[in-house]
Fold this sequence. Notes:
The chain is built from 11 helices and 9 strands.
Amino acid sequence: MANNEESRGLKSLFDWFANRRKSGSTSLERQEREIADGLWHKCSKCSVLAYTKDLKANQMVCAECGHHNRVDSDERIRQLIDNNTWKPLDEHLRPTDPLEFRDRKLYSDRLRETQDKIGLIDAVHTGLGQINGLPIALGVMDFRFMGGSMGSVVGEKLTRMIEQATQRRYPVVIVCTSGGARMQEGMLSLMQMAKISAALQRHKDARLLYIPVLTNPTTGGVTASFAMLGDIILAEPKATIGFAGRRVIEQTLREKLPENFQTAEDLLQHGFVDDIVPRTQLKTTLAQLIALHQPVLTPPHMVLWETMSLTSTAAE
Length: 316
């Protein structure tokens, strides 16, 4: 009898230790998992692990292989614009559903879900700011919003920003990333290509600078319009840049395309892009280009001298 009680007591003691060890290991695993979440980032190209904090400090560029991870529009503005100089433009503009378009769901429902999910009204941020103390008008597209597609609001905001820049005599920089025109708005989306291009032509006529920065990916109607109208066209390394998709072109031509087809490096070789600039050097490069292309104002005494000379010649 006593032996049975002792064995039951010994067994229960072993069970207690086993349960304690099991619960302890589970809590340890949970703690390790909680610590690891968001702490490390695995590069999609070279598979090297990096501290997320270090990766963000390097502007989301892998220090091992140089892979440029996609960044959102807010982060891009923080990378380029001097602190406390950003002034957003036309934040009140909201997309509508004039065609009452429906695919798998209503376009109006798709807009609302996307807006609630990522906290953006549409696929572009526009505003005025400074880069290394130099004034600039900046537009930044965001691929998270329906693939950075160009709808009516995107076109209207970019056009208004360019017109503001022309009036203030500011250079314009647009960071492009897009899958093209927004099919849910049909012809209204395609009209934005001509509208933005016309505004850029007036900006050019005023002898002012425009620089598009092509990031991964830049395709469709954006490539076919304002992305290729720059005075100086910059691109990020390995960015996919083109009009139609690779698969569509291969099916049309019925032949295999080169591996580097539609990359920034291939476009640079063929003259479509002027330079490839790593993201970590982009702000410095833009500041240098803007400084070199600042409008030169003629000193008042020179204008007076020319006027006097012309008047004297006319009198003779």
